Amino acid sequence: MLKTFRKTLDDGFFPFIIIDAINDRVKYFDQFWSAAKTKGFEVYLAEISADYQTCAKRNAHGRKMRDIQKMSSNWESSPRHMMRLDVRSLLQDAAIEEVEMEDFNPDDESLKKPKKNKEEEEEDVKVGPIQHALIGGVQCS
Prior knowledge:
- The protein has about 140 residues and is of the alpha/beta class.
- It contains five helices and three strands.
- The protein has helices at about 1-10, 25-40, 50-60, 65-75, 120-125, and strands at about 15-20, 40-50, 130-140.
- Helix 1 (about 1-10) packs parallel to helix 2 (about 25-40).
- The longest helix is centred in the N-terminal third of the chain and has 13 residues, at about 25-40.
- It is globular, with a radius of gyration of 20 Å.
């Protein structure tokens, strides 16, 4: 994963990169943080907390409850020099709206965009000078 992350940084295609992993130990994400900082990225950590039952329910790796509890008890707080991003307000169930999605038909003429001239296309490509990396981890308690 680190090798792929470094290649993504080197390619320079993305101004914003998200690493979503357990990251319960600093040594698991420290190399990602260092690599992103070295390439000029502003790096943020997002630590999300959930109860054991929620973690077990969302567990895509088939971990046992005792394994989840062990990871939680060994949780290491991130160092103070690493900037944390508070995403709690984005994750509240009440803040997430359910939306009805319609089937997309690419042949629908009403959805086609008018062609842009060369100047308009160049305006769309401009990217700000700041690049961001978000390293996420979930702590179960």
